[in-house]
């Protein structure tokens, strides 16, 4: 296999890695990898993508074999990176990027900073207040959910930014415990009329909505292994949230 083909395939695996670790569904990852390799002239490839890994094999005209296996653990969802990679693949299709230029652009996408954690917290709080209103909460309940949901989001951001590989189970148990403690304290302070509705809104930043939706989408696309893994992960996180809330009431 010539050097150019290996560079194309290495770049293809890197593209799939960015998509998968950013939360893209399996079909999107496999399709993008196949299209990019074909656009650069490497057509005989077989990508096999799971929720936590990428397997890529290829053959050239001389029957030389290329193989690459990449383990990708579950990470936070980054919609902006998925959008940027999709835009890159479309620009490659119209001949805008040579391979070296595409490699540089992908590196820039990988280094894209996360949104400011303060802004994320405010938006998560607003979302929590909106869910509280949907659940029938009064405006004071919604205000308490805004505060509690923002604090939970700050906790998640600080956990992710700490640099330590914290257990997802522990993080979500503690996050749910923080949500119910904040909700109860605000309720006791006179802000809100129903602590249950406040708590229901406050735990929303913890809910694994994207993982659940992608799991269902993978199942409908026939990717049963990946879909099952994502659904199990979403259900485990949901159980941890329920456990965190239950611990508060059992202890206090």
Low-pLDDT runs of 5+ residues are none
Helix proportion range? 55-70%
User: Could you give the count of β-strands?
Assistant: 3
Radius of gyration: 22 Å
Mean pLDDT across the residues is 87
GO molecular function: transmembrane transporter activity
Transmembrane segments: 117-136, 142-162, 169-189, 228-251
Subcellular location: Cell membrane
Membrane topology: Multi-pass membrane protein
Please tell me about this protein's structure:
The protein is mainly alpha-helical and 252 residues long. It has 2 domains: 3-110, no CATH class; 117-251, no CATH class. The protein has 10 helices and 3 strands; from the N terminus they run H-H-E-E-E-H-H-H-H-H-H-H-H. The protein has helices spanning 3-21, 26-39, 79-93, 99-110, 117-134, 139-161, 168-188, 195-202, 209-220, 224-251; strands at 45-50, 53-59, 65-71. Strands 1-2-3 form a 3-stranded antiparallel sheet, with helices on one face. A hairpin with a 5-residue loop joins strand 2 and strand 3. Helix 1 (3-21) packs parallel to helix 4 (99-110) and helix 5 packs across helix 8 (195-202). The radius of gyration is 22 Å and the shape is elongated. The termini are far apart. The chain crosses the membrane at residues 117-136, 142-162, 169-189, 228-251. GO terms for molecular function: transmembrane transporter activity. Residues 10-247 form the Threonine/serine exporter-like N-terminal domain.
């Amino acid at each position: 296999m010539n050097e150019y083909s290996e560079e194309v395939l290495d770049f293809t695996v890197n593209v799939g890695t960015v998509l998968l670790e950013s939360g893209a569904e399996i079909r999107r990852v496999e399709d993008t990898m196949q299209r990019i390799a074909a656009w650069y002239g490497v057509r005989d490839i077989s990508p096999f993508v799971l929720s936590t890994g990428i397997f890529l094999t290829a053959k050239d005209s001389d029957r030389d074999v290329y193989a690459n296996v990449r383990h990708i653990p579950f990470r936070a969802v980054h919609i902006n990176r998925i959008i940027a990679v999709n835009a890159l693949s479309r620009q490659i299709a119209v001949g805008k990027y040579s391979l070296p230029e595409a490699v540089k652009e992908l590196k820039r996408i990988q280094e894209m900073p996360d949104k400011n954690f303060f802004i994320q917290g405010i938006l998560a709080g607003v979302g929590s207040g909106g869910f509280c209103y949907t659940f029938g909460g009064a405006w004071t309940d919604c205000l308490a959910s805004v505060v509690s949901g923002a604090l939970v989001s700050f906790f998640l951001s600080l956990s992710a930014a700490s640099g330590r590989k914290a257990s997802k189970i522990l993080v979500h148990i503690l996050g749910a415990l923080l949500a119910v403690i904040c909700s109860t304290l605000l309720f006791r302070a006179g802000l809100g009329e129903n602590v249950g509705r406040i708590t229901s809104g406050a735990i929303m930043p913890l809910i694994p909505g994207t993982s659940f939706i992608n799991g269902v989408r993978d199942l409908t696309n026939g990717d049963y292994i990946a879909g099952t893994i994502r659904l199990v992960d979403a259900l485990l996180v949901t159980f941890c949230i329920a456990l965190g809330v239950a611990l508060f009431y059992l202890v206090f």
